[in-house]
Design goal:
Elements (H helix, E strand, L loop, with lengths): L12 H8 L7 H9 L4 H8 L3 H15 L4 E4 L7 E4 L1 H24 L12 H4 L6 E13 L2 E8 L8 E6 H7 L6 E6 L5 E3 L13 E9 L9 E5 L5 E6 L15 E5 L6 E3 L3
Parallel strand pairs: 7-10
Antiparallel strand pairs: 1-2, 3-4, 3-6, 4-5, 6-12, 7-11, 8-9, 8-11, 9-10
Helix pairs in contact: 1-4, 1-5, 2-3, 2-4, 2-5, 3-4, 4-7
């Protein structure tokens, strides 16, 4: 069975801009470069150091972001399939090259952004996201768990926190090039952060993403819904979340200076990598 994707209409540079958000930060553009050099998808995967499945996923993501087919590809058949970069794919690579050169010139001119965390130089300055929580970190360790990888992160500033854990797919870990010591940005939306009056009842020392914190601000409640809380974390950063509803028969008062606990599901932590 042969599957083929073709470019239907020519792409303008503005059409391809969304796909450039993945240049430098992971290996998706690198895979496209290897295909442009005449490699098959399997060869491109080997050159980029990712699995064949991850290479396919990378091309799918880039194609969705660009809104155009970036490669013409066939799967299966007597010849084992192949891939050829499209005109839109060539344009995307040219734009990525120009962007990389411009970025290098800016960093050389200013010697790197002063005051920016070493964990993700410049990433926070150019990152627009709805995520309220952004924590500069370094990868501490990676633990394979079936088709997923548990990534242990060491926040900048250290402190007494046990660190941050994120759970991602094996393909995502490969495409991001995750390895111990790599600077990353951990992101999490405020709605995923639960603010508790005391330590979770389970074994805190065995539980990831449960940290003691001190309330800095509490938003006024405009309705009966949960209140937004900003609290200082052990490593010096801030966490934004929502106060958990008290159990039946219990009550607790939120105020600045109060000790609380912040709890985040591992699957709610998103990772971003800068060049």
């Amino acid at each position: 069975m042969m599957l083929r994707m073709t470019a239907a209409t020519p792409a303008s540079p503005s059409d391809l801009v969304p796909a450039l958000g993945h240049d430098l930060a992971d290996r998706r553009i690198a895979i496209l470069r290897h295909i442009a050099a005449g490699h098959s998808i399997s060869q491109a995967a080997r050159e980029a150091g990712v699995s064949y499945k991850a290479a396919w996923q990378a091309l799918d993501v880039l194609t969705n972001l660009a809104g155009r087919a970036l490669v013409e590809r066939s799967v299966g058949g007597a010849g084992g399939g192949g891939a050829r970069i499209t005109e839109a794919g060539q344009s995307l690579l040219a734009m990525a090259d120009a962007l990389e050169q411009a970025r290098a010139q800016v960093l050389q001119r200013f010697g790197g952004p002063a005051g920016v965390s070493s964990a993700a130089p410049g990433l926070g300055l150019g990152l627009r996201t709805s995520m309220r929580n952004l924590w500069p970190c370094r990868v501490g360790a990676l633990q394979a768990q079936g088709a997923q990888v548990r990534v242990w992160l060491l926040p900048d500033g250290g402190g007494d926190a046990s660190g941050i854990a994120a759970r991602i797919t094996e393909e995502s870990a490969q495409l991001l090039g995750l390895a111990p010591g790599l600077p990353v940005m951990a992101l999490c939306k405020a709605a995923a952060v639960q603010v508790l009056p005391s330590a979770p009842r389970s074994d805190v020392h065995a539980q990831a993403n449960a940290w003691p914190a001190q309330v800095q601000r509490v938003a006024r409640a405009d309705s009966a819904g949960p209140r937004e809380v900003v609290a200082q974390l052990p490593w010096g950063g801030s966490g934004v979340g929502y106060a958990a509803e008290p159990a039946e028969g219990e009550s607790w008062t939120l105020r600045a200076g109060r000790k609380v606990w912040l709890k985040v599901p591992e699957s709610a932590v998103v990772l971003a990598v800068a060049d």
